[in-house]
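Ticket reopened. Same input as before:
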Amino acid sequence: MADISVNVTVDCKGLSCPMPIVRTKKAMDQLEAGQVIEVLATDRGSLADMQGWAKNTGHQYLGTLEDGEVLKHYLRKSRPEELKEAANYPHTISNEELQSKLAASEDIVTLDVREPAEYAFGHIPGAVSIPLGDLEARLSELDPEDSIHVVCRTGSRSDLACHLLAEHGFQYVSNVVPGMSAWTGPIGNQ
Amino acid sequence: MSTKVAIIASNGGQFDAYKVFNIATAAAATEAEVAIFFTFEGLNLIHKQAHQQLPLPAGREQFAEGFQKANVPGIPELVAMAQELGVRMIGCQMTMDVMNLTKDEFIDGIEVGGAVTFLDFAKDANVTLSF
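Engineering reply: fixed in the latest deploy. New output:
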């Protein structure tokens, strides 16, 4: 797996429970919504604790990589507005429709606008990764004539991305709803 | 509404202190509202001097090394962390009277109250624990 870019790294190596959780909470309080944190820990219990912590606080647990003795946990601070499904870009496509288009090898581009760490822990095979925050600066990497299907976790960031693409003259843009949170199709992590 | 965790601490050993404060800090860090009611020997856990050197159970003194090796924070450190995370600590007035202890013999920031003070918090708690 490629390097995962994060906004902050918290080093909890050598610390026992409950320190990794306490440090994670403190660091998370300093982050802005949407940012990603990496927690380095040697406490094996932190593997289950991080997932339980995220579930109870509403933040997003992305996954864990093991590097020898060190567990590298990745979490993303959630945005309150992501919890509601207020997608208002008119052209939407369901997960299932996208899945059948991909299965039929239709000539479409899947654009994943989540953070690199989210993408790294599982994405639609072949999806192009451009985080929402970088999209405007990287529009030249996309072709306005392509049929682009934009996906994120819940359809909220992809909705914003669809508006942005449409404003810049992209004509064939659809928002994939709900997105990766309910994706049951093939997953890649390369 | 956030999860509420109500804990009764009624024993005064080092193992007891870890059970109480580990659960309390972990819960508070997970954005739960936490209150601990200290009664009988549990008062040692927040007594200014006593909580600095709580006894290990007889015959288990060898664990002192284990705590150090596992880099487990000391009890005073855990107590400070719990307070920083907003854990409410309530000393039992009745036991303090029996033991002839006053509030100023305890760490700063605690409350003193009777059983109803705790019950009022615990009546709608999602998790209630007794150590």
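The mean pLDDT of chain B is 93. The two ends of chain B are 26 Å apart (CA to CA). Please confirm and we'll close it.
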